[in-house]
Amino acid sequence: MPAARDPRPLTGEPLALDLLNTRWNREGVTQDLLTDTDGLAVWLAGNGLEYEPDARTLRHLLQARDALRAVVDGSPQEGAPLVDAVLEHGRIRAGLSAEGPAERAEFRDVSWAPAWLAARNYLELLTTAPDRIRTCAHETCVLHFFDTSRNGTRRWCSMAACGNRAKASRHYARSKES
Prior knowledge:
By secondary structure, the protein is α+β, with helices and mostly antiparallel strands. It has helices spanning 15-20, 37-46, 55-73, 76-87, 113-128, 159-177; strands at residues 23-26, 29-32, 90-97, 100-107, 133-135, 144-146. The strands form 3 sheets. A two-stranded antiparallel sheet has the order 1-2. It has a two-stranded antiparallel sheet with strand order 3-4. A two-stranded antiparallel sheet has the order 5-6. Helix 3 (55-73) packs antiparallel against helix 4 (76-87), helix 3 runs parallel beside helix 5 and helix 4 (76-87) crosses helix 5. The longest helix is centred in the middle third of the chain and has 19 residues, at 55-73. The N and C termini lie far apart (57 Å). The mean pLDDT is 91.
C-alpha cells in the first residue's frame, strides 16, 4: 500500500532540514508528521528511503530530529554531542567500484539508518555552505531551508506563503497609518 500524501507545506529540502520540517505551524497550531509510524512511512517515502517504518526507527528518527533542532535552533555547543550520539550508530565505508571511489553507509542496527543519514546530511550541509542553512524569517514559521538562490538572500521558506503574508502584513500596516 502506498504511503499517504505528505501534508507538510515545505518538502524537498536536504534530508536534515526535511526532518526538521516534520514539525510546522498551521493556523497557530503545531503539526507533527512523526506522531506515529504512518507519518514515518510518509516521510521515508517522500525522501526515497526504503527502510521499515517501525516504532524503533521512529524513536531513533525523533532523537535525530531533537538533536538537529538543538544544534540548528539552539547552541552548536549544546547540540553537537546530541548529533554525535546519533552519528555513533553508523559509519562510512570507503571503497573502490568499477566507476571509481565509492562510499557507503553501514549500520550495526538498520533502524538507525534514517536518523544517521539525516545527521550525516547535516554535516554535509555544514561542509558545503553553513551560512545557507536558514530558518524562515516569518515570525510564526518554524520551517528550515537550504538557500540555493544565486546571491544567498532568500528569507522565506516559501515566497507564496510566508513571504506573501509578510508583504501583506506590511502593506496593511502602511495603509492603516495613512
